[in-house]
Amino acid sequence: MDLPTLWFFILAFFFVGYFVLDGFDFGVGMSLPFLGRDDTDRRVLINTIGPVWDLNETWVIVAGAFLFAAFPEWYATLFSGFYLLMLLILLALIARGVSFEYRHQRPEAAWKRRFDLMITVGSAVPAFVWGLVFANVVRGVPLDEGFDYTGTLLDLLNPYALLGGLTTLLLFFTHGVVFVSLKTEGEIRERARRLAVRSGLVTIVVAAAFLAITSLMHGTLASILLSIVAAVALIGSFVANLRGREGRAFGLMAVTIGLAVASLFAALFPGVMPASNDPANSLTIANASSSEYTLTVMSWVALVFVPLILGYQAFTYWIFRKRISRAAIPAAH
């Protein structure tokens, strides 16, 4: 395996990790209006991800840095052509992060409601827009000979991409609600489990439609097999949740999202951004990658630091593994 191909798979790994980990963060944020009946409930929900949300978000920072360094042409085309969508994701993430830090700074109910709304919107927007972005990348966009995007924002809002956005939105929402049932006790745990059953049914239908269309239009043998296993894992998560097996349901949801994202990268391979107007203008692993020297240096850096990142992440989740209940929430001041 040559270095550009290796770095394509490394990049896929980091995006898989980002969507699995920050995906349930988004889902918890979106669940506030559905599961948070009062301020204490909402504080319980926020506390389930309080110790880990910022660590989960670093995965996209690392993925973006690796994309810039390993595939500069891909990075330039993606971020210049999709800059409005990327800006929308960035603003939503900023609003969400600010809300986590400032929500508790004042006791007024109106103050907290505004930041709760920012958390909900700041979680829903990236969950939807990331699906738009990846669906358009797999579908292909018009590119000129210099690999510049020649379409408009409306071209990116095509039915297939909108279905992709709805799929990631529902997957992350269900993933987050299952996480809440895994991390909480008492009535909120039961409400989360019931909500996961309802959202899971809708998610199965929408995700199956998107993966089926992707397989028919852009699928390879590898991507089709990954999609099938992802669909089986999604159904398995739904069944586990019905039986009250939150740990198994959450694990299978993580497998579903991971394999679904992996299937999109498999559908791309060996391309990275197909040109819908002229295949000759498509970006591939070969013409989008950095020099051999750059990729060699990056490989040694990744060999040292990636295991440290994974180890620290695992340690953090182990430390904050206990369930949270309303009784554990101190009175608001």
From TrEMBL:
The lineage of its organism: Bacteria, Bacillati, Actinomycetota, Actinomycetes, Micrococcales. It comes from Frigoribacterium faeni. It is a multi-pass membrane protein. Belongs to the cytochrome ubiquinol oxidase subunit 2 family. Its EC number is 1.10.3.-. The chain crosses the membrane at residues 6-32, 74-94, 115-137, 157-183, 195-216, 222-242, 249-273, 293-320. GO terms for biological process: aerobic electron transport chain. This is Cytochrome c oxidase assembly protein. GO terms for molecular function: electron transfer activity; metal ion binding; oxidoreductase activity, acting on diphenols and related substances as donors, oxygen as acceptor.
